[in-house]
Amino acid sequence: MSTTAASQDERHGLRGSVEIRPARPDEYDEVGRVTERAFAEGPYGHLPVTAERRELVLDVAARAASGAVLVAVAPDGVIVGTVTLVRAGAPQSRLAVGDEAELRLLGVLAAARGLGLGRALALAAEEVALGWGAASVVLDTGTRNLVSQTLYRSLGYELMPNQSTEPDGSPIRHVEFIKPLRDRADVLVRLVLPEEYEAAADLSERAYTIEYDITETYRASIRQIAERAQEHQVWVAVDTATGALLGAVATPRPGRAISPLAREGELDFRLLAVDPPARGRGIGALLTRHVIELARLRRLDHVVMNSGQQMVGAHRLYEKLGFGRLPEREGAITEGGRTIQLLAFTIPVGAAS
Questions:
Q1: pLDDT class for 333, splitting at 50, 70, 90?
Q2: Mean pLDDT, the chain, integer
């Protein structure tokens, strides 16, 4: 996973773009030092650090094993910020329960503040939580950390009840925040699991062959869930009551494209599929809105996609959601001896509801 946060501020020596990505094992020691320094430069830097807190900060490998550790890397390769996301029940989790994810240790070095890196790291962590299928993200921060509280509120976090706690005898009073990630209780969207590749391929094939006469080449491409999940991302809609897969869609990893259609500032997607027995439950709309949300988290401007001319049902869905045609990028491809006309659709991320 990788995304960018643009900056031209020469005061901090950050020119070009700062990359947000998972920390590599060979960087763990440096990530610990950056985390320690970022908090020392914050509103509680004057307070003594307990042994337990120091272990939490410096044992980056343990945090990574419990979830994900992301870093903000300057163009010269220097790590200038980091954030951790852990699952409920992990040793590093304080608040998360059930299927919640917990954001911890978001820190940006003082020399790199004011560039939007805290926001970029928090958004990237939220995408990780979506990949897990988390119902919500929870976090806490000190009552004096007004900058962080403002950031979290601007990202849609809300205060949890029973505020202003003192965890583990700490002299720092905390406020706790939560951000729900699901719009509905009966279906969740997450990244496909390896043991689900075959089922996802089967439902995708059923979705396309029940209505359309497709070439064998296209059928084989539809079924390449394992390969697509390795190179890109495959998201699945899952029935929360039964665990059954209801639909799937493919997106690129951050900073990449999954088709020739996408340009800078755009997120493209492919192979939106709803299992025929699951039609009528709004799964196609749910997955498409999920793609738009990914574009928002990656701070992109538009979502774009190609669709075959014969796929009129999908076209009605896109138009209902607010997509418009992109005729200047439309064309045709030859596949299996057939010429297939491809339509193009787009939606501004800020215009999507």
A1: confident
A2: 91
Q: Are 101 and 67 in contact (CB under 8 A)?
A: yes
- Matching CATH topology for 3-180 and 187-351? yes
Report in angstroms the alpha-carbon separations of 319 from 171, 273, 285, 346: 55, 17, 11, 10
CATH code of 187-351, in short, is 3.40.630.30
Q: Which residues contact 29 (CB under 8 A, 6 or more apart)?
A: 60
**Bridge partner list, 292:** none
Higher pLDDT, residue 85 or 309: 85
pLDDT surpasses 60 at 163 = no
Three-class DSSP category at 64: helix
Query: Is the four-CA dihedral 24, 180, 201, 258 of positive or negative sign?
Result: negative
Lowest mean pLDDT of 125-129, 166-170, 271-275, 337-341, name the range: 166-170
Strand order across the beta sheet in which 270-274 lies:
187-191, 233-239, 245-251, 270-274
What are the domain boundaries of the chain?
Answer: 3-180, 187-351
Q: What is the DSSP string of 68-123?
A: EEEEEE-TTS-EEEEEEEEETTSTT-SS--TTEEEEEEEEE-GGGTTSSHHHHHHH
Cα of first residue to Cα of last residue in the chain, in angstroms, is: 26
Indicate the burial class of 320 (C-beta count within 10 angstroms; 0-12, 13-18, 19 or more): exposed
Region of poorest pLDDT, from 14-23, 39-48, 279-288: 14-23
Give the CA radius of gyration of the chain: 22
C-alpha 175/C-alpha 165 separation (Å) is 7
Quickly name the fold that domain 3-180 has: Aminopeptidase (3.40.630)
Helices (H), ranges, 162-282: 197-209, 216-222, 225-231
CA angle 172/101/18 to nearest 5° reads: 85
Structure tokens at 154: 């601007």
H or E segment to which residue 37 belongs: helix 28-40
Report the residue count for the chain.
353
